[in-house]
Design brief:
7-stranded mixed beta sheet, alpha/beta, single chain, Nucleotidyltransferase, domain 5
C-alpha cells in the first residue's frame, strides 16, 4: 500500500509555528489511514489569530512538546508509512514553516483547486482570470463549500481538522497526487 501525507500548520502572531496537523492517506483511495496532531510549546501560549482553535471540539494533541521533539516525532511518523510526498493547501506557507521536512516532495492543493480547468465545481459565473484561476474565494473554506455543496461548512483553523478537510478536497477533486504542482 502506498501513502501520502496532508499537512496543515497554524502560527502565532509572530509567525512561529504553534501547531501541526498531519493525515496519512492511501494513495489509491484517498482514505485516511492515520493522523497526528502536535501542539508546540512554548509557542502555543504566545497568541495567534487561531489560538482559540488549538483544542477546539475537545481535540487533544498526540504530543504537546517543543518544536524539536514534535518535528522529530513527525518525521518518524512519516517515515513509518514510507511517505515521500506531502500535500498542503498553499503548500509554500507550510513548507516554509517546516524546513526540517525539506527532503520530502511538497505539492500544492491550491494550485489545482483554484483553477477552472482542474476544478469542475467552479461555477460558470465565478470571476476568473484568463488563466482560469479564481480571482477571489479560493481559500480552503470557499473551495470546500464549492466542491461539497456544504454551504454551512466553516474552517475551524485547527491544524488537524484543516488537514482532514484538505484531504476531503483532494478526494472530491479526484486528481492523482502527481498532478499537483511541486512546491
Amino acid at each position: 500500500m502506498s501513502y501520502f501525507a496532508v499537512i496543515d500548520t497554524e502560527t502565532t502572531w509572530n509567525n512561529e509555528l504553534m501547531s501541526i496537523g498531519v493525515v496519512i492517506a492511501e494513495t489509491c483511495s484517498f482514505l485516511a489511514a492515520d493522523m497526528r496532531y502536535y501542539v508546540l510549546t512554548p509557542f502555543k501560549d504566545h497568541g495567534g489569530m487561531y489560538s482559540d482553535a488549538l483544542y477546539i471540539d475537545g481535540i487533544t494533541p498526540y504530543l504537546e512538546t517543543g518544536r524539536k521533539n514534535a518535528v522529530s516525532d513527525l518525521i518518524r511518523f512519516l517515515d513509518s508509512y514510507g511517505i515521500s510526498t506531502i500535500l498542503a493547501y498553499n503548500a509554500g506557507f507550510d513548507k516554509g514553516h517546516l524546513p526540517e521536512l525539506g527532503r520530502f516532495i511538497w505539492r500544492d492543493i491550491m494550485a489545482l483547486a483554484a483553477y477552472r480547468q482542474h476544478n469542475p465545481h467552479i461555477p460558470d459565473c465565478a470571476d476568473c482570470y484568463s488563466t482560469g484561476r479564481l480571482k477571489r474565494g479560493y481559500g480552503v473554506e470557499s473551495i470546500y463549500r464549492m466542491i461539497s455543496s456544504d454551504f454551512e461548512y466553516y474552517e475551524l483553523h485547527n491544524a488537524l481538522t484543516d488537514a482532514v478537510d484538505e484531504l476531503r478536497i483532494l478526494k472530491i477533486l479526484g486528481h492523482d497526487i502527481g498532478k499537483y504542482r511541486l512546491c
